[in-house]
Amino acid sequence: MAAIQSLNEDEGVHGILLQHPVPPQIDERAAFEAIAIEKDVDGVTSLGFGQTSLGFGTYPSCTPAAILEIMDYYKLPIEGKHAVVIGRSPILGKPVSMMLLNRNATVTTCHSYTENLEEIVKGADIVVAAVGKPNFVKGSWIKEGAMVLDAGYNKGNVGDVDYEECLKRAEAITPVPGGVGPVTISMLLKQTVEAAEKLI
Start-end ranges of CATH 3.40.50.10860 in the chain? Predict the structure, then answer.
C-alpha cells in the first residue's frame, strides 16, 4: 500500500498496473482501491468500474477495451446484437458486459452457476469467452455467423474456445495467441500515454 501511495504521488508516473493475482498476504481489492483514479489505466478500481458502467469512464479495463477495439476495427456490429459473455470477473466479464450494453447490445452474462449454458450460447450473435478453461466453448455451441472473441489464455497457448471447430461456424473469431492479448497490451499503453498527456 505504501508503494502504491508513493507511485500515486510521483509526478513521473502516469499509470499504475498491479500485476495479479497477488500473494495471499496482500488484500488485492484494497491494493486496487489504493490506485489513484487518474492513474488507474487498467480500470481496476471500483470507481473506474462504476464510471465505465455508466458510460463515461476514462480508462476501462484493458481486455474489455481490446475486445471492443477489435470489433470496431473490423466494423463488426454491436448495436442490437445478442452478446453472451461467459465469465463475470471484475476486470473482464463484468466490465465487458457493461461496455457492450452501453453500445446497445442485449447482454447475457453467464458464469459457473448458469444453467443450460450451451443453449444460451447457441442464441448469441457475439460470444465473449472469459472463463479460464481451455477449449471450453465448443463449435457446436456457436450459431452460424456469430462473432467469437476469445479472451482466455491457458497453459500451452490455448484459449477458452475450441478454435478450429468454432471457426467452421463463426463469421469472425480471434485466435489464441495473437488475438485479444496483444491488443490488451496496446490498450494499456494507449491509456497510459493518454494519462501522461493530460499532465503535460
Answer: 2-60
